[in-house]
C-alpha cells in the first residue's frame, strides 16, 4: 500500500495522522473544509490537498480516487448527520479493496457487549442531552455512522478512542475488543498515539472488521493487566 487519503486532515487527529503516514513513507492525499486548508500550509509539497466538506460524496470521491487506504475522522460535531454522511460517502466511493479506517469514541459499541463505567455512562447521558439541546453535537450520529460501517462487507476497522491527552508519543496503544476489559480502565491515550494506531491499522490485516478500543501503552491499567493487552504488531 502506497497511497492513502485522510478525510478530515486539518483537525488535531488528522494532522497527527498526516505526520505519521508521511514518516512511514505513504503518499498522502487529504480532504478538509476550504476554511481549514491553511492549517496544512506547513505540508505544502508533501501532500495533495483537496478542499470540500468531508460529508460531500463528490468531494470524498475526488479525494479517495486511486487510494489503497482511507483514514477517516468521524466528526463528532453538529446535528446534521455529518459523520453518517461522511462514512457513507467513503463506503460508497473508496476503491473496492481499499483499507478503510474510521475514528470514533468508546461510546460506540459494535455488539452491545461493552461494559461502561458509571462515570462514563453519566457523562454520555448528560453530555448527549445537553449537546443535542444546544445543537452542538448529536451522539446518535456516530452511532448511525458506525452501524453502517459494521454492516458493510468492506475491509474496515473502527478505532474507538479513549479520553485523549496531548504529549509526546508513547508508542502504539494497546487494544481490547470490549470496553469494560480491565486493561482499558485507565481510559487515557495520547492523541498522537491514537493517530499512530489509525495509521498502523492500514497494514494490520488482523484488524480488518474489528472495532478495537484503545488505551495508552504506558497506562496503569495496562501495567496491571499485561496478559489481557492485545498488542498491535
Ligand atoms: N476529543 C476526544 O477526547 C476524543 C476521544 C475519543 C475519540 N475521539 C474521536 O477522535 C476523532 C477526532 O476528534 P477530536 O476531538 O480530536 O477532534 P479533531 O481531531 O480536531 O477533529 C475534528 C474534525 O472535525 C471537523 N469539524 C469541526 N467542526 C466541524 C463542523 N462544524 N462541521 C464539519 N466538520 C467539523 C474538523 O475540521 P476542520 O479542521 O475543518 O475544523 C476536524 O476534521 C473523532 O472521531 C472523535 O470521535 C475524540
TrEMBL record:
Alphabetized InterPro entries for the sequence: NAD(P)-bd_dom, NAD(P)-bd_dom_sf, Polyketide_Oxido-like
Pfam families: NAD_binding_10
Domain NAD(P)-binding: 8-204
Domain of life: Bacteria
SUPFAM superfamilies noted in UniProt: NAD(P)-binding Rossmann-fold domains (SSF51735)
Name by which UniProt lists this protein: NAD(P)-binding domain-containing protein
